[in-house]
Hints:
heterodimer, A: 206 residues, mainly alpha, Fumarate Reductase Cytochrome B subunit, two-stranded antiparallel sheet, two-stranded antiparallel ribbon, B: 323 residues, 3-stranded antiparallel sheet, 14 helices
Amino acid sequence: MATKKLYLYPIWIRLWHVINALLFLLLILTGISLHYASADSSFIPFEISVGIHNICAIILTINYGVFIIGNVITNNGMYYQKWRKNLWPKLWKQFQFYAFGIFKGEPHPFPITKKQKFNPLQKISYVMVMYLGMPLIIVSGIGLMFPDKISNTIFNISGLLFYDVLHVIVGFVLSLFLVIHIYTCTLGDKPGTLFKSMINGYHEEH
Amino acid sequence: MKTPTFFFLALLLVAASTLRAQPDDTIKLKASYFEVNDYVEDNEACLICHGETKFIIEDPNSGRSKHELMYSERSIDRDAFYSSVHNAFSCNDCHSYDYSVFPHSIETRVEEQLLCMDCHGYDETFAQYHFESIEMEFAESIHNMEEFTCWKCHDPHSYKAFMRNAEDLEEAILYDNNMCLNCHANFDRFTLLTEREEIVVVDSHDWLPNQASHFANVRCIECHTEVNDSILIAHKILAKSEAVKNCTECHSRDSRLMHTLYKFESLEQRKGGFVNGIMINNSYVIGANQNVWLNRLSLLVFGMTLLVIGFHTYLRIKKQKKS
Lengths: 206, 323
């Protein structure tokens, strides 16, 4: 069977992505350890978790800056635009494919092309994660890193409490995204196909 | 007239002829003082000098006079005194009548001072404060050294039971920490009691992340005393090597802060689902203030996600086997 190859992931995206993935994993592990810290048996020692979490957070913030700048100066930004056009019908179609069509061997409703790297579900989740979730977790994280600089009260509650609860909730949503993202990446032609794309830059279709 | 009173007044006359306080236009004796104290005017015999920052000393023989600064350690703020726990006291309740002679004799100045236990110990009136336990704790404390008395931390002329009646916890923490810093950030005072080298608090705590935030939100004694649930405030100050350095002692569900800083309010354990919820009135302690509802919800959502993924994977494998 002939293989269709599309170069979709330039080196800067792949590097950004792999760094982001590693940082995500470290931040989730240390974040969970801090959240469930115990005097007797912390998953990772508290002070080590704080150190790793802070360093990773700083690198993640810089890496996020690379993503934003990259999207501005290259055409990668176009994949995150016009996500609201016919949103619900498109989402429903993609959902039906994942829920039923995939088991009947139906073709992908939104095949990957040079102009359409993401299906509608991917697109909205990536837009939400990168343009809503990431800024929220970065801003709340900076607030927690510099607690003396934040307001004492926000919406009538302790500023620290506001930032922390926001950080924990967004962190959880992003962790959930990571799990779903990894799983949906096994939904290529073969379970490893999409992971390979992120290594060599080529999207392959058989 | 009883002899001691006569003696006291006679000495007062002598003293009044040799010194006087710096004249001041401000009204020193406020109505509020008289509301809490029956000896305000008597106390002025002392405060006429000790309530001022400067005084005038006069030699009646030569007629010469001279301004002197009141040594700050001997200066008493009237407002602070009349709003302190001892606000109803006369100076002579604790100090000898001999102080009415000026200059004060050396015998008077080294007289044995009354200590907390002399009034508060073994007295049913004060039983709820467990002064006896405090004394026992102090005996085992690193502060138990020569010349270190209760007064070194609790100035009887201004002491307020801040923590017990705390309405503004931040203010109470500042008040308490200043008791420690009074010596630990003032080397001159520090050397009165020890030969040790100077401690620079900021440097000795440089390992502590978000130092300023910790200093503003917890008391020194949270980490530098042994937890004791039977008294209101722990008094067994530990040696540096025994101080808490394990973050999770506070940053965990079973946070020691609930047995120290928040022990007065620890009955209010959960607030809006937050573990150790009383802390979130003023602060947020990572690890100690997990929200049980959010924890449960996150586990439920995560579990359901894994279930859906597992089921989806199962169907894919089944389909692959068929084809």
